[in-house]
Amino acid sequence: METELRDIRQQLTEKISAITTQLETISGLTAAEAREQLVEGLKNEAQIQASSYIKDVVAQSKLTATKDAKKIVLETIQRTAAEHAIENCVSIFNIESDDVKGKIIGREGRNIRALEAATGVEIIVDDTPEAIIISGFDPVRREVARLSLHLLVKDGRIHPARIEEIVAKTRKNIDEEIVEIGEKTIIDLGIHGLHPELIKMVGRMRFRSSYGQNLLQHSREVANLCATMAAEMGLNVKHAKRAGLLHDIGKVSTEEPELPHAILGMEMAKKYKEHPDVVNAIGAHHDEMEMTAMISPLVQACDAISGSRPGARREMMESYIKRLKQLEETANGFKGVNQCFAIQAGRELRVMVDAENVTDERAAELSYEISQKIEKEMQYPGQIKITVIREMRAVAYAK
User: What is the pLDDT along the chain (399 residues), one digit of tens a residue?
Assistant: First the structure.
């Protein structure tokens, strides 16, 4: 039986070999060459089909990606309750009776002058019933003036010495309130482990504005937008929320103001040991450095969404505030100047000088020198009145 099978196998092998030889003779190719051509043909066909498939997949992915991106943005905006956060340059102080206005003005206006000198705002007492208008570009000064007025009216003792005492006390209370605001903000957002200095800066945002938009409201809004988008995209939600809240901290820093606020904020975040992704997101949100973290473009997009809402910002406000700050900085650069306040929407500059180092004659010269420097270095509409105030105080103690 085995012998028969061996013979049959031998015969089949010979027939296959003969047929292969015949095919090679007819085609002019060896079996190996034919196999190689067949494989090559199948490979080319497979590549063509694969390329067509890839092209279809890429086109479909682009359509899907655009659709999914729009969906994520729309869902994020819908889920984030945003407020209109416009900051004005006036605050209203309500009073119970118009009789209080006389006390606030004082004899020959001495009380109101002392209040304006101590706070750096303009107090407008006019015919508006049961209201006093506090005007100033700096929200912190306005808040100090408003709270000081409240305490003075409540106490009833309104005179220059008492005004200075109350204003100093109020400024201290504002510093404590800044810390409380920062702590409340991070608790509301569920952010943990933030350095105490960064918490102070978050609180300070409450009293700053960007293009008329309250900086703290804007930063909270960006943080919530970032968290929602990061969750939808599968990114680190905690890092995205931190970066969203801290992206504008450079605007409230007094250190190295010549640096762009994004780079300054990045340096501060690095100093207080924030995560490298958070640091990069802060520094890159205005394209002033390369984006290396996944959350960086997210923060940039959310910042744009928050700022571009109708009514969120007013472009003229920022340039207006910069002009007033430049006015004050110009006058503060002169020797003997203690304090300087831009009031009347920048139409008047009040300069407080040191009476011991600046004489009456020098005060007159100083007002002229400041006016000349402002004329040369600044651009402004109309004219600016420079008022140099030199107050001489004689103090003695009865023992």
Answer: 677 777 777 777 777 777 777 666 766 667 677 677 767 777 777 777 777 777 777 677 766 776 677 667 666 655 655 554 445 566 777 777 777 788 888 888 888 888 888 888 888 887 767 778 888 777 778 888 888 888 888 888 888 888 888 888 888 888 888 888 888 988 888 888 888 888 888 888 887 776 667 788 888 888 988 888 888 888 888 888 998 898 888 888 766 567 788 888 888 888 888 888 988 988 888 878 888 888 888 888 888 887 765 555 554 556 677 788 888 888 888 888 888 888 876 788 889 888 888 888 888 888 888 888 888 888 776 778 888 888 877 778 887
In a domain, 64, yes or no: no
DSSP per residue, 124-166: E--S-TTEEEEE-S-HHHHHHHHHHHHHHHHH---SHHHHHHH
DSSP state of 86: B
Q: What single DSSP character describes residue 235?
A: S
3-state helix, strand and coil shares in percent for the chain, rounded to the nearest 5: 65, 10, 25
Here the tokens at position 343 are 């009031």
Whether 212 maps to a domain, the answer reads yes
249 and 159 in a single domain? The answer is no
Residues 109, 167 within the same domain: yes
267: in domain: yes
Q: How many Å apart are CA 214 and CA 140, to the nearest integer?
A: 12
Q: Which two tokens stand for residue 212?
A: 């008329």
Q: Does 321 share its domain with 372?
A: yes
Verify that 261 and 309 share a domain, yes or no: yes
157 and 228 share a domain? no
The CB density around residue 270, as the number of other CB atoms within 10 Å, is: 15
The residue whose two tokens read 């929320």 is 241
Residue range of the domain that includes 265 = 208-313
Question: Is 223 a member of any domain?
Answer: yes
Identify the domain boundary among 124, 155, 177: 177
The CA-atom distances, in angstroms, between 217 and each of 4, 152, 185 are: 96, 30, 10
- If asked whether residues 148 and 218 sit together in one domain, one would say no
- Say which CATH number the domain at 149 has: 3.30.1370.10
Tell me: do 309 and 336 sit in the same domain.
no
pTM of the model: 0.55
Give me the amino acid identity at 358. Answer: V
